[in-house]
Amino acid sequence: MAASKVSSRDKPVIGINSDPTKSVGHLCLPSRYSNNFDKVIELLRDGKFQWQYKQRLRVTLIGDAADEEAKALNDMRYDMRGFLDQDFDQDRYNQQHNNNNPNHHHHHHQRANHLDGQCNNVTFKTVDGKVFHKIRQLKERALNEVFVGETLSARVSYYELSVDNNQLIKMKSSGLTICTGTGSTSWYYNINKVTEQQVFSIVSIINKVTQTNKVNPNDSTLIGDITKQFNDTLTFAPTEPIMAYSIRDPIGYASAVGHSHRGHAKRIEVKSRMQNACLVLDGCQFIPFNDGSYALIEMYDEDALKTISLE
Fold first, then answer.
1. Domain locations in the chain?
2. 242-258 per-position pLDDT tens digit
3. How many CB atoms lie under 10 A from the CB of residue 162?
4. Domain 2-75+122-193+234-309 has what CATH class?
């Protein structure tokens, strides 16, 4: 995503929603302008807009992860067989693929060099007290979300999670997502939203347990309102300097120590205990993230993306 690659806080970016009937598009202008861009030009020319700064996520790789090469996820459809099959001759496959696509090799390395920051020999102490002398801060800033999990969706993701410098807690789930307000309308919302059917069942159980009928589960308007009000609490403004995390499909997560399966945070540290895992930024940058690797996800005002608001 191009907006993730803009490094300057002073470079404005304007997004046009190409699918306004299906996409919310927090980065983009309101959908009513998608087919009326002349009006946008008029408003910009007349100065009838406000500057807006949308928060982004900064990712730092620690330890073994700092040596991993980042790849564009769109290219992984060519490389996935070699990535997943250890018996597959990756060098031979790459050579054949590059021979068939003479521009691919050059384009791939240009993109990798642009996305990756330098690997620095500095000291970093993790939450669990381990000291590393090798870290790499990615140049790209995630506008929507960061995903951590096993590459094969059928395999359980095993990792340790620290929220706001609290102790690392061992987790098993189908993955971990960390999002900004821009990304809160996508994965985070859909992972955690409830349906009217679920609310109906919960209200029915409450009535049964409390032996009351204060809330009528057959009142479709009321059930719809409750559902909407809960789901509306899941999203937040793209300008808010906070990120939201969600442990997707948790398997016996550590509720005993008060660790929620979702919430807001200022700082998140993840330790991988996985075999064939990845860390993906905005669905476009893929980084291997296997056992012993650490990742630090933070949010800083200086990383915000400058956009406009016409509201």
1. 2-75+122-193+234-309, 194-233
2. 999 999 998 875 444 45
3. 21
4. mainly beta
